[in-house]
Design brief:
Layout lengths: L4 H29 L7 H30 L1
Keywords: Membrane, Transmembrane, Transmembrane helix
Length: 71
């Protein structure tokens, strides 16, 4: 058995970066959808819109991962 260590390292690196990025985007979504006490009305709407965009990006990443597994 011959293991291609370079390819294994690339897969590990991409997986690590993708995981950290996805968790970061989801965290931004949580922060945007959390309570906005003390903020003006327009700022709350902007934060909620950004949170929805973050959640949509997370859902798209999950869907893309499922697509890659299925094909």
């Amino acid at each position: 058995m011959n293991i291609d260590w370079t390819a294994l390292g690339e897969v590990f690196g991409v997986s690590l970066v993708a995981t950290v990025a996805l968790v970061g985007v989801f965290t931004l979504g949580i922060l945007g959808s959390s309570s906005q006490a003390g903020r003006s009305g327009g700022s709350v709407v902007l934060a909620r819109s950004a949170a929805v965009a973050c959640y949509a990006l997370c859902a798209a990443a999950v869907a893309f991962g499922i697509y890659l597994i299925a094909t």
